[in-house]
Every structure is written in C-alpha cells, then in structure tokens.
Amino acid sequence: MLNTKLISDVKSENVLPARCAYVPQNARLSLNGEWFIKEHKSVYNLPDDYLNEPINDKIIVPSCVQYYGYDYFQYTNIKYPFPYNPPYTPYNNPAYHYRREFNLKKDGKIYLVFEGVDSCFYVYINKHYVGFSQISHRISEFDITDLTQEGVNTIDVFVVKWCAGSYLEDQDKWRFTGIFRDVYLLVRPQGHIVDYAIQTKIDGKVTFKYNSGGAPAQIDFNGETKTVAPGESADFSVANPVLWTAENPHLYDLKIACAGETIDEKVGIREVSVENGVFKINGKHVKLKGVNRHDFHPKKGSAVSEEDILADLKLMKEHNINAIRTSHYPASPAFYRFCDELGFYVMSEADIETHGTMFKDGSYGDYWNALADDPLFYDAIIERNTQNVINHKNRPCVIIWSLGNEAGWGKSFYDAAVEIKRIDSTRLVHYERTEGVLKTNPKAYYELPLDMVSRMYDFEDKKPGQSALEVLNDTNETRPFVYCEYCHAMGNGPGDLEIYWNILNSSDRFMGGFVWEWKDHGVLYGEGGYKYGGDFGETPHDGNFCIDGLVGPSLEIKPGLLNLKKIYGGEKTDDQKIEVPTISLQKRKPEILTKKDETVIKCGEAEYAVNLFNGKITSAKIGGVEFLNNPIAVNIARAPTDNDQYIKKEWFERGVYEAEPFIQNYEVIDDGLKLSGKMLPVYRSSCLDFDLVYKFFQDGVEIEFRYIIPDSVKSLPRAGLTFGIDKGLDSLVFYGKGEYEAYIDTASLVAFGRYETTVEKNFTDYIRPQECGSHCGTRYIKLFNQNASIEISAQKPFSFSALPYDEKTLRTTTHNWKLPPSKAVYVSIDIVMRGIGSNSCGPKLPAQFEIPKTADNIFIIKFNR
Ligand code: GAL
Ligand code: MG
Asked: 777 with 803: CB under 8 angstroms?
C-alpha cells in the first residue's frame, strides 16, 4: 500500500535538497506529453495491486485533471474546500494514477524533476518506490539513477488531491489537481555541480559561489575563466557595467563547465537596497508599478505554457507595468527567466496562505495565527520559504522575497525571514499580515525581520491611500511602505488609481503597489462562455470573486488596464480642443391638449405624449414616425457594478430599484409642461424629488431637470433620464470623455474628444454584466442610421451611455453569454453618475464621487428624419 500516513504530514520523502533552478545543456529529457491516467475516488481505497492495475485513459501532461472530466471544478477564495481538521484531509481524497514509459540511454546520474504538482504525489520507477513530495509550486527532484535501466522504463505517479500541505495552500483560486508544470529527466555526469549563487554589485563585481557539487567548475564570464571548487567563490569584475533594471534589462552571459556538462546562466548586475527608509534599485529610488499574477488560463487552469506566460508579460510590458508579485506561490522557472529578459521587478512569494482558518468556526473570526503558531506546520512554513529562495535566487528580476500571503504571524514566519536573510542577504523580505503583532506587541512589531511595511487595500472606512499615509506619519516607523495589493480590479473599475498614485508619488518612502489582480479566472469548460464560482454546482464557492482582473481570461483588455497604463506611464491626458456641435430646435407654438391622464402636444409635424401621473414622455413622433420605443423617464438606478456590491444593499433597501416617478403637480406653460414629482418605491418615501420643465418643438424637446435627494437617502447610483430607441439607430458619435467608459473618478485619465463608435462597441463586455459604457463630461451625442438620427446636448456637461441592454437586463443576467438578444438602444443621460471606486475589496467610494444632494441641467433632444 502507499504510505498514506504521509498525506497527513507536512514532510516529503526522498526529495533532494532544493537547488537553484537550471537545466544543463542537452541534459533534459522531457516527460511532458501523453500519459495514461486512472482516477481513484479515494487514495485510501486503492486496489491491492495498485501499481500494476490496468490503465486506459489518457491525459496530456502538464494539465489539471478537472479539464479532462475528472473530479469537479471548485472556486473558493477564503473557505477551505474540506473540513477544518489540520493536518487531516478527507477520506474521499481522490488519487490520480499516472503512468508512462520512457526510453533511456544510461549514462551518469539520472534525476527526475517535477516543476509543479498539486497537491502531493508518490513516484515509482519500474515499480520501485522513489519518494513522496508536496508543496504544489515547488521544484521536486529525485535521484533515480539506481532504479532506472537501459532502454524502456516505467514511471508511475500517484497524485493526491489534498494533503496536510493543502492547509497552507488556501490561496484564492480554482482548486485544481494534477501534474500542472513540466516534468522531465536530467541526465548528468557524476560529480556535477548542484547549487550555486550568483551575486552582483553595481560597481561591477560579480561573485560566483559554488555551494554544492562534486568536481571543480570553470566559470566563464566577461572574457575571464576561473576555476572554483565546491565551497569556494570566484569574483569577476566588469568595468563600466550596464546595470540591470526593468527599463533596461541588460543581461551578461555566464557559462559553468563542470564534470563535462555546461550550464548557461544569465547575470543581471543590480543591487537592491533600502537607505533611510527609501527603497532603491542600483542606488536610485524606484516605484513598483505592479500587479499580482496567478498562473491561469481559461482552458488549462494553472497549467500555463511558456507561451501563455510570455503573453501575460508582453501585455503587461505594453501597459507600463514594471513589477509583479507571484501571488501567492512561486512561479515556474520560465517565468523568472522571461522577467529577467523583458525587465520586471519580481516579488517572489512562498507557497503559503491559510486564510481559511478565519472561517473555522463558521463565521469570520480572528484565527489568523492558528497555523502560523502551530508547531505541526513550523517546518513546512520554513521549507516553503527556503524552497522559493533557493530555487530562484539567481534571477536578477527577483528583488523581494515574500513569506506568503494571509497566513497570520508566528515564530514560523519570524524564523523563515531570518533563514531567508541567512541564505540571501542581497534582497529584501516582505510579509503583509503583521498588523496583529502591531496590536498585541507594538514593540516587537517595529523589530520584525522585515524590510518594508506592507498593507493591502484600505478596507472599510479608510480612504484610498490612508494606510500609506499612516505609516509615513508613524514616528516609530523607519521602513519603506508597499501596497502588496490595492485597487481591486473587479468588474467596472478600479476607480481610485489616481488617488492612490497621487499619494504614492508624494513620498520616496512609498515603494508603490501591486494591483489585485492581473487576470480574470473565468473557466472555459463545457457549454457556454466564461464560468465562475458556483457554475459547476460546487460548494462552498465564492461566485465571481475570481473575475477580478485588469484583463479578461483570454487577455481581453479592459478599461481598467488602459487607465492603469496611463497612471503607471505617468501619461498626461490630452483633451482634444475641438468645437462641439450645437443643437437648435425649431420653434413653433405647440397645441397642448390635456386628456384624462395624458397630455398630447402637437407642434407642426411633431406630436408628443406625456403621462401626467409619472411624467414620462411616452411618445415622440415626427411626421408620424415614432422615435421612442421606451418612454423618456426619470432614472436613479444603475446595474450594480462589482464595486457596488456592498452599497447596493443600501440601494435595494431604500427602494432605488423599485422607485417609480410620481407626479404631484403639473402646470401647462407657454410651450410645454412643468411637473414636479418624486421617485417612490413601495412602502418607502421618496428617493429623489425632482422638477421637470418640458418644452416642445417641431423637431425635439428641451428638458430642464432639477433634483434634490431627501436626507434619508445616503447614496444613489445616478440621477438622470433614460429611454429606448430603435435598435437600428446604433451608430454613435459623441463629444465627451472617452475612447472607453469614463466615470467621475476616472475622468481625468480619459481624454475628452470626438468619438465615433457603435452601441455594441460602447458596451463593455464584463463577464458578470453590470453598469458600463458611461461617459462623463459629455457635451453632444448623435445616434443614427441612414434614415434617422437623434442628437442630444445639454447646457452643462453630462454623463451618457447608449447600450444594447437596459438596466434591469444587465442587473439580472449573471453571465455575459446569457444576455438575451438586444431589443433596443437604451440611452441614459445623467445629470450625474456616481463614481466607481474599488469597494469590492477596498475603501468605500470617496464622498466627492457620490452624486451631489442637488443638481440640475437642461437637455436638448432632437429627432431628425
Ligand atoms: C486579498 C487576497 C487575494 C484576493 C483578494 C480578493 O485579501 O490576498 O488573494 O483574495 O483579497 O480578490
Ligand atoms: Mg485570501
């Protein structure tokens, strides 16, 4: 039987000590590709002859088994997907028996390397037990020299879904299983080098430290060759070195020849430091313009290829991103190589998160330190950290080691930080979750072996950037400050990039920050489009909280990324200086006929109807042609954005989504009507009091609209008018903010100009439909086809949107691919539209971006045929 005891322990068996990641020339024999696979519902219930059992199914490695129809898809953010009983995992813990053959010419030493397996695995070569490993995102290496034979060999791997280590791998992600990164053999000479460290100084000194191995090595660097024995170092010196930075990622070649084998290395000469509380690269202060990156691909899960990684990095580079946090586990070796080449500052994070402890008693409680302080996990927390550091220590891109994410604090983390500094004193150490220490033992807090203060978001009642300012103003604090996460990019948003960066740019004590997060994790599997938590019937799940990236799952560019590009690039917004068309309506004294509940207005060729109970303009016919297919009505609702997810409860309670206009007074005036009314929901009082003055013309209407928000209403999404027109009128020209959507809190990032587009293109295709496509600062719009057009302007700039769906459809449809066919063009013209913010995981919207208590505007709507 497999030694299943290992599953409930945090140790591995027979895995070689960690070494730096490299692949010697011609040493690699890939074991990627087709393997046989068999699923067992429980690892505790394997057949007696499990090693020799027949296997017929096939799988391509690397991959996640869920994409091959095994197990199920599950997305959970915080909650553990299994009962909380550390270090034990459930009996129904599936095991995947992988098997394949490989051909070998026996020569020297043979190693078997797995770059990533979720969550743990047993390995057999030719039916002999080799070892057991865990820590999903680490490199596991086994010496299989003595178990292999010339010619055909068989490898059997049993991958088990959960293990004790899973308690330390509670990252916010889909819970995938399998051999998800490369697997290969290394054929190496006896006496080869094992581990080495390359360290640099900006004066050009490059030190090669031969940490472990057998034979002496010859190091070729910058025209010099030096011989180094294990335990020794060699110094090289580069005159006038070209320093490595993210902007200019200059790399020097270094060759290691040892025991007949050659390793090609790249060296980036650079230094990382903190001087007087200021973070510096090569002696100069640098701001980290970062994002958090997970491994994710919609059709592969965490099994991303080198091309997928490169595609992420190239797109980041194009958008002025210069820093990446490998949230919340080390990336694959290829990632760091690409970051060296393309130029990114990397915060490499250990494979640790224990957020789920917080829910162990059912509701969210403060159990942060449950595992950090548990001796059972002490070694594992250290090992996960040393593994990260030892594997990736030769990559110049790595400037910061992070101890993990959201795992509390305890002796384990303290000691891990000390151990990291012992192994690598050339970089900085980061960890965020230490506010508990500040509360309980402030003296200790300032002496933690951490090189920076880190915070995420500015939760609840804090203002965007407040945490940074608090640290700056803390006279006990001498370290630089970083946001390891900020500006939660979920759905429409984030709206507060500019506020954060006004603050982050205000002091050199601020290192910058990493937006949460780079990419949406929408799964493409089965029928339909992108799926999120709950779409596979799994429980628990966290819905669309995995759809919180700057780009879509297939790198679809969203407005948030375009805004980020400008902020990170320090780009100025160039408003176009252009003349805005004006609209004049043809005057003629209208005939106003009031019937029971309706007023009909005739004005030359035009005929309008107004409902006197709700004030809606129900009809606008010019020469008998109806322009409205949905009345012009007062509107205060918007389909909640993801960042509205908390405030929306208040809106629903207050009746915003049920409120209907009710007219209390009306008066016929010279060329129209004067009405005053309220937006009234059932059983509740007014959400908005308004006055309307309608003036009718031969070719359009002028609407004066003024509102006051009653004191009992704390927040509203918008105040404006909305109506529907024929869906054929879908060509759009407007003069306003926006090659893409713009709200009052992103307005300064989006240029005012003349834009030509269509209603479809004006719609932002968020995976969970929500308010989108609005443009503040608008002065003029025209919607048209060959036969007719509608033009709108106003006395003062306004916000507008023209969308293929109405508010209710956007609000009630859960996925973009479930949206019904469009029935009309829905036009909204708002005196004000509320800002966006980043409250889905961050501060409340700053008060200046709420809609004001009272405001007014005069809109002109012209109908042309
Ligand atoms: C943070 C966490 C991230 C992610 C985010 C919400 O607290 O560190 O991993 O879960 O919240 O999207
Ligand atoms: Mg978390």
From this structure: no
841 ligand 1 Cβ < 6 A: yes
Distance 794 CA to ligand 2 centre (A): 47
Q: What is the pLDDT of residues 505-549, one digit of tens each?
A: 999 999 999 999 999 999 999 999 999 999 999 999 999 999 999
Which run of H or E residues covers position 811? Answer: helix 807-812
- How much distance in Å is there from the Cα of 65 to the middle of ligand 1? 25
Q: What distances in angstroms separate CA 457 from CA 66, 313, 737, one per listed residue?
A: 33, 24, 28
Q: Which ligand is nearest to the Cα of residue 358, counting in written order? A: 2
pLDDT band at 1 (very low <50, low <70, confident <90, very high): confident
CA distance 668 to 675: 9
Q: What is the pLDDT of residue 597?
A: 87
Does this model's pTM top 0.70?
A: yes
| Residues that are catalytic | 406, 485
Q: Is 33 in contact with 60 (CB distance < 8 Å)? A: yes
Confirm if 263 and 24 have CB atoms less than 8 A apart: yes
Q: Within 13 Å, how many C-alpha atoms sit on residue 160's CB side?
A: 30
| Reduced 3-state DSSP string for 505-567 | CCCCCEEEEEECCCECCCECCCCCCCECCCCCCCCCCCHHHHCCCCECCCCCECHHHHHHHHH
Q: Which helix (H) or strand (E) holds 606?
A: strand 606-611
489 lines ligand 1 (CB under 6 A): no
Cα–Cα distance, 73 to 537 (Å, whole number) = 9
| d(CA 781, ligand 1 centre) in Å | 40
